[in-house]
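Let us practice reading a record.
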Amino acid sequence: MLSRVAESLYWLSRNVERAETLARVIDVAFNRTIDRNAAGRERAQRMWKRVLELAGLFDVPEIDGPSAAQEAFSLGSFDSDNRSSLISCVRIARSNALGVRAELTTEVWESINSMYLFVEAQSPAAIAREGPSGFLRRIRDAGVAFGGIVDATITHGDEWNFLQIGRYIERALMTVRILQTHDVADDSAAEWQRLLEMCCASEPFARAQRHSAEPSETIAFLLLHDAFPRSVRFCVGEVDRALHRLSETLPGTYSNECERVTGRLHAMLDFTQLQEIVDEGPLKYAARISDRLASIGAAIETTYFPRVPVA
């Protein structure tokens, strides 16, 4: 496969996954704004600051007042100058899909194009009249549907593997970044529930941990669970398997740098115990995992999408 095609498939999948996760994060934050304001204006401000950082906005003015939630929603969703905003992710995904249209099934193309047309038809002013939840849920549903349509209609060969790698490395990164939004000044059940909801993990966690509501169990579930499809361990395992399918290298071995760094992180997560995370500090541990995931992404780009100098 041409590296240009592989790269477009990879970034198509990453941006759809980012848009879907970002829509859920903003939706949960928006719905919890009343609770946060009741708990204190400063906590509400901290929450929106971290949500906007997830959306790639690090230098925005302080958001406060009765319109803070609406202003944050507009910035995170419709800021065209920010390549990590929701609308930018959908545009980038659609642009990549257009470039590899011949490699996609009609169903996959229609899925991403419908999402793009829906987002382009919206505006913050129009959404404000009815509230953002309907708009954000539509994006969430479209992102989840995209993954299902890809799995059901594309032959599980090289094209599918690059789509899988993009989906799961982005999902792992977003899970880690959501954990990093934890408000260390608030150790309440509501705060941990917010993190679970942002990762679509509230009900799976409740079923898996029927007799425990300890904060540390939330951390373990989102980082180390071996069967929850949004845990970091599960996602890294899927990336590792997809990379080995591409190179046809036996599991447990490696033939290139991206397989080496992915396998190393996967093994670390397999053998990490919760107490080690608690001892190091969950936020510090999450930051370390985020750096490892960034290294995997860089290694994938170097291995499969090399930049050839132009003479």
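A brief commentary: The two ends are 24 Å apart (CA to CA).
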